[in-house]
Amino acid sequence: MFIHIGKNIMVNSKEIIMILDYLKVKDSSLSQGFLESLGQQKWNDENNDNDEETNTIIVTEKKTYFSSIAPSTIEKRIKKFLY
Questions:
Q1: Exposed, middle or buried: residue 5 (CB in 10 Å: 0-12, 13-18, 19+)?
Q2: Residue 61, pLDDT score
Q3: Residue 72 pLDDT
Q4: What's the pLDDT at 40?
Q5: Rounded Cα–Cα distance for residues 41 and 35 (Å)
Q6: Which of 2, 4, 28, 71 lies 20 to 30 A from 13 at CA?
Q7: CB within 8 A of 6, min separation 6: which ones?
Q8: pLDDT, tens digit, 9 for 90 and up, residues 17-67
Q9: In angstroms, rounded to a whole number, what is the distance separating the alpha carbons of residues 25 and 20?
Q10: Which of 18, 23, 54, 59 is nearest to 38 (CA)?
Q11: Entry's InterPro entries (predicted)?
C-alpha cells in the first residue's frame, strides 16, 4: 500500500522504517547525529525545501523524506489500511 506524504509523493508503506516529529527532532543533537549517520545525501534531501513547512521526517529504506503533513496524520493513514 502506498501512503501520500505530501507534495504529490507516495511512499510504499512497507519501505517506511520510522516516522519522526520534526519539531521534536530538530533541536536534539542526539537525533540529528542519528539522522546524519543515515548519510549526508539522505539528510540533506531535496524535499526539505522549507524548514518552516516541515512537520515530519519519514525514513525509508531508500531515502529520507521531509513532509509538511503532521506525523499523526501520516500514522492515521497507515493505520486506516492496516485494520
A1: buried
A2: 85
A3: 94
A4: 46
A5: 11
A6: 28
A7: 67, 68, 69
A8: 999 998 888 888 888 787 777 664 455 455 555 566 889 999 898 888 889
A9: 7
A10: 59
A11: RemA-like
Identity of the amino acid at 30: L
State the burial class of residue 21 (Cβ atoms within 10 Å of its Cβ: 0-12, 13-18, 19+).
Answer: middle
Q: Could you tell me the residue ranges of all domains in the chain?
A: 2-82
C-alpha cell at 11: 511512499
Q: Which positions ≥6 away from 4 have C-beta within 8 Å?
A: 10, 77
* DSSP states along 27-41: T-HHHHHHHHHT-HH
The CB density around residue 46, as the number of other CB atoms within 10 Å, is 8
